[in-house]
Specification:
This protein is α/β, with parallel strands linked by helices and about 280 residues long. The chain has nine helices and 14 strands.
């Protein structure tokens, strides 16, 4: 767990990503050290700001990056040289696919060079209630609890927190992976499997980069803790797919069978996922 967090791109500008995340970080009551990084300000929301990660002159466990695309690679290189080993990248890729692919390759090269583990890009962020950590782009604070929520959609995180809070449902962890260039579902399940603060796991999937590892870890996790899965595109079977036309099971049916064999529960709608959160919280 991080004992120090640096928010690169912290800002006072109303509505900016840097301000939203910084306000969430302050409101969460993080028990460690917070570094606001912005070369244009000496103070941000009343807190001392430093110009760069190295200017903090302190050990930084987690760097949260909320800056323009063209600054990200250099920031990762700077952070790696300063000893940063974990980062959350909130920045979205360039809109032009021709620019996005080289940008992603450069990010991966920088993280591998410096052995930085990366969540993102375009990540919703991370909430960890037992240490008061909230570095998300959402508008609310999650209540402490013993459920973990891991999704690929920040909108699902926000919606589930909004649903859960009035009902007193709390979470140990809330994460949305975004582009999942590095950290994926399998590794997060590995962590939650052994996490003493988590009793149940909710997953929302859109796609998987490493299905074999995911199912292997999912099987291990489901033996110890209840796991509920919602996957988007459940009913999308293309008639023109030659395998389906030949009578082979659709990819969705194969996925459902794999989840069942792993010992998890699959739900079909957002409402059912929210209901599962309520049930598991009891």
């Amino acid at each position: 767990m991080p004992e120090s967090v640096a928010l690169v791109g912290a800002s006072e500008r109303a509505g900016s990503l840097g301000r939203i995340v910084f306000e969430n970080l302050l409101a969460g009551g993080f028990r460690g050290t917070i570094h606001a990084v912005n070369p244009h300000h000496r103070k941000i929301l009343g807190h001392k700001a430093v110009s760069t990660l190295t200017a903090a002159k302190a050990k930084i466990d987690l760097a949260v990056i909320a800056t323009p695309c063209d600054t990200v690679v250099s920031l990762l290189n700077e952070g790696g040289a300063a000893g940063v080993r974990s980062a959350v990248l909130l920045t979205a890729p360039p809109g032009d696919p021709a620019q996005a692919k080289p940008w992603e390759r450069d990010i991966l090269a920088a993280t591998r060079k410096h052995r930085i583990r990366l969540l993102g890009p375009e990540a919703f962020g991370v909430i960890r209630t037992d240490i008061g950590l909230n570095v998300t782009v959402g508008g609310g604070q999650a209540l402490p609890g013993r459920l973990a929520l891991v999704t690929q959609s920040g909108a699902i995180c926000s919606a589930l927190i909004d649903f859960a809070t009035p009902l007193g449902i709390g979470f140990s962890s809330v994460l949305a992976l975004g582009g999942a260039l590095d950290i994926d579902f399998g590794e997060l399940l590995d962590f939650l499997l052994l996490d003493p603060h988590t009793d149940g796991i909710l997953l929302y999937l859109e796609s998987l980069h490493d299905a074999r590892r995911f199912l292997s870890v999912l099987r291990a996790a489901a033996r110890i803790k209840p796991v509920v899965v919602l996957k988007s595109g459940r009913d999308g079977t293309r008639a023109e797919d030659p395998l389906d036309a030949a009578g082979a099971p659709s990819p969705d049916k194969v996925f459902s069978a794999a989840l069942q064999r792993a010992g998890t529960v699959r739900v079909g709608t957002y409402t059912q996922l929210f209901a599962a959160a309520r049930i598991l919280s009891l």
